[in-house]
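Hey, quick one: can you model this chain's 3D structure?
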Amino acid sequence: MSDYDSTDDTLEHIGKVRENLIRIVDGLAARGLLHDASKLRTPEKEAFDEMTPILRGLTYGSDEYRASMDKLGPALAHHYAHNSHHPEHYPDGIAGMTLIDVMEMLCDWKAASERHVDGNFERSIEINRKRFGMSDELTAIFHNTRRWMETQR
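Sure thing. Here's the predicted structure for all 153 residues.
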């Protein structure tokens, strides 16, 4: 039997993990404060003032929804350019995102699904799976997280 006691090394490891988690939590909290702030300024505000009430009544992912989103044109392009939680922000889509971006994106999808009259978070994940070419593995992680979020009320 060894005279080595792993307690100090384990406590140091636990402390480093805690520091890393706090760094992530702080980053997510900052994202929560700044999320979609660009929608409150020109050129986005005017376009979203006009289109949000229309979009709310449409089924996410439908042809009618996509046609209405197209009407956002330059405002939507500006939004994607200034908000890294959208795959459209990156030339290579989701593959260009950080895990922090992805977490904000998933929270955004949940909130957006709650805004639609017939919104459904589970269906939204499946629509976006096709839209963004998400892998089976990432899609499963999103559904696992969706189920976890539903238990955290």
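One thing worth noting: The chain has a mean pLDDT of 96.
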